[in-house]
Amino acid sequence: NLVMYRTLCDTTLKLDEYKITRGKERGLISLFVDAVGELKSYLITPEELALATQSLDKSHDRLKRRISDLEKIYKSFNNNLEKGFTDPYDMIINLAKVAKEHEFFKGTSVFISSFDGFTGAQLGVIREIINQAKDVYISLDMQSGDEGKTQFAKLSRTLKAIRTMCDSKLEIEELKEDTYHENPCIEYLCNNIWSFGAEAYKGRVQGVT
Description:
Order of helices and strands: HHHHHEHEHH
Strand content: 5-15%
Strand order of the largest sheet: 1-2
Distance between the termini: 44 Å
Radius of gyration: 23 Å
């Protein structure tokens, strides 16, 4: 938030749509932190925002000014981060670069569960995992639930992205119901994996190494 405060102070005279006056910066800090974070999550750069403004005609003049302002704030924010600060959103992006450089997941078996979708930055990490790992297992809940078509569309986009990354190596298995209860050891693990102080499993260990 301190970095964004500095950013707004630096850019306020360059903005056309967002008029930031002294004493009102704090109300906009969270707004722009979230906006920049969302853009980073989907790997949208300031340069791409600048290109987007060029494609808008005069009938979208206000939208064009807003996007232009956001591009200036986004770019200045990144410049300020380079002065010794860290943005959590950049950590995910950098993780993909580090994983690729050091082959961190080479030859491993990776299990990814409890997600209903991934951001562009997260998909970048998953792409490196798929390229390096021996086996990758990803579980998605394809039931639409309370959110209906919107949630199902999100899951469908996620599956499409994973399918593209896997090329012809993808195998899909649809589970009609939970089957972990068929193995008491795995059932105990599922029920207690996030429990602090859980007692050790006392039965025979099967299917877990």
